[in-house]
Design goal:
mainly alpha, 59% helix
């Protein structure tokens, strides 16, 4: 239903995505987060991400980049540091942080239907898995 009367300044300031056009990342995302945004958006139809899902997608992109940073730190962790109690605590903290990021990413991906689980019926997934 169309709004009657004059439109508010706030409603005029909202940038909408035109039909068939992919949503651009919000300006507040970092370069790495914007790259994740574009990569994810390019895997779905142009109208997949409506404006109400943009905050979820932005959060997902932030979690992906944070998880990548944590993974690099974990991968670069020297095993000799585990002999030290402080090193072990730091390693455990990094692992817990990565797990938390992974859980957040998974929850957001599911809610936006980005996962394989959301793409296939159970029977189709089983058929595809058995044909590999």
């Amino acid at each position: 239903m169309a709004q009657r009367g004059r439109k508010s300044a706030a409603s005029l300031a909202v940038v909408t995505t035109l039909p068939g056009q992919r949503a651009e990342p919000p300006r507040e995302l970092t370069k790495a987060q914007a790259e994740v945004w574009r990569a994810v958006v390019s895997t779905k139809p142009a109208d997949w991400f409506t404006e109400d899902t943009h905050p979820l997608l932005a959060a997902y992109c932030r979690h992906v980049v944070t998880a990548t940073v944590l993974a690099r730190q974990i991968d670069g962790f020297n095993p000799d540091w585990l002999a030290d109690e402080d090193g072990l605590k730091r390693y455990e903290k990094l692992l817990a942080m990565r797990e938390r990021e992974t859980r957040a990413m998974t929850a957001l991906a599911r809610s936006m239907r980005l996962t394989q689980q959301s793409r296939y019926k159970a029977e189709t997934a089983a058929t595809k898995a058995s044909s590999v």
